[in-house]
Amino acid sequence: MPPSIPPRAITLDLDDTLWPVGPTLVEAETTLAGWLREHAPRTAASYDAEVRASIRRRLLQAHPEHNHDLSFLRREGLRLAIHEAGEDPALADDGFEVFLAARQRVGFFDDVLPVLEHWSRRYPLVAVSNGNADIERVGLARFFTASVSAHEIGFAKPDPRIFLAACKLTGIEPQQVLHLGDDPQADILGAREAGLQAAWVCRPEIVHRHPPQTLAPEVGPRFDSLRDVAAWLDGAAPGA
């Protein structure tokens, strides 16, 4: 069944909605590791996944006010690792930029560009992300009216305020805005708590992260792709 109120704007999650984030992060970690071997070899020798996780826990304990800010946690975690390895902590700023640049090299799901092109002619589109992907740097800015990121605004999904901030940028009331995302808690239930419509984009490539059978029925509607969402919306368009 199409939405009872045809949306006038769409907000979209980025990671695992528009591209698979796993391969991107693996490549970014590999790029950073290579940089560290050249510029901070003692850090490189010990900066494995277990150490990163331990440092992240320590940072969250010391700075709970930054739990929404993945850029802060990444940069300051790297700084702490470099310091504890006895190397220059100032290297962390350059190292973080190396990681961040690699993190923007994403591979879109094959329906993303044509669907965003179609929607950008009909709706204001706003990116809403807890991560540090940048719509300009990944090559999607031409489709979007604006973007809202947790590290810039100070709170993360599912906090209703991040969704309301996105709606404000469109000038459209929340009940006339549709949010799309891959995370049933952070995206779908969070958006609905803020008064938006929401649809779960549960791509086959990532469905194992949120098994449908473990979720409450209020998460629906559910789609396998943006292409399916587009067909659903076209059926809901006035006069269609």
**In the CATH hierarchy, what is the architecture of the largest domain at level 2?**
3-Layer(aba) Sandwich
Mean pLDDT, to the nearest integer, reads 92
What shape does the CA trace take?
A: elongated
Q: Would you count the extended β strands for me? A: 6
CATH class term of the largest domain: Alpha Beta
Structural domains: how many: 2
User: How is the biggest beta sheet arranged?
Assistant: 6 strands, parallel
**Unreliably modeled segments:** none
Q: Which key terms come to mind for this protein?
A:
single chain; Four Helix Bundle (Hemerythrin (Met), subunit A); Rossmann fold; alpha/beta; 6-stranded parallel β-sheet; 6 strands; 2 domains; 10% strand; elongated; 240 residues
Task: Please outline what is shown here.
By secondary structure, the protein is an alpha/beta fold. The protein has helices spanning 21-39, 41-46, 49-62, 70-84, 91-103, 112-120, 135-138, 150-153, 160-170, 184-193, 226-236, and strands at 9-12, 125-129, 146-149, 177-181, 197-201, 222-223. A six-stranded parallel sheet has the order 3-2-1-4-5-6.
Please give a structural write-up.
The chain has 240 residues and is an alpha/beta fold. It folds into 2 domains: 9-20 and 107-236, Rossmann fold, CATH 3.40.50.1000; 23-103, Four Helix Bundle (Hemerythrin (Met), subunit A) (Up-down Bundle). 48% of the residues lie in helices and 10% in strands. The chain is built from 11 helices and 6 strands. It has helices at residues 21-39, 41-46, 49-62, 70-84, 91-103, 112-120, 135-138, 150-153, 160-170, 184-193, 226-236; strands at 9-12, 125-129, 146-149, 177-181, 197-201, 222-223. The protein has a 6-stranded parallel beta sheet with strand order 3-2-1-4-5-6. Strand 2, helix 7 and strand 3 form a beta-alpha-beta unit. Helix 3 packs across helix 4. The longest helix is centred in the N-terminal third of the chain and has 19 residues, at 21-39. The chain is elongated, with a radius of gyration of 19 Å.
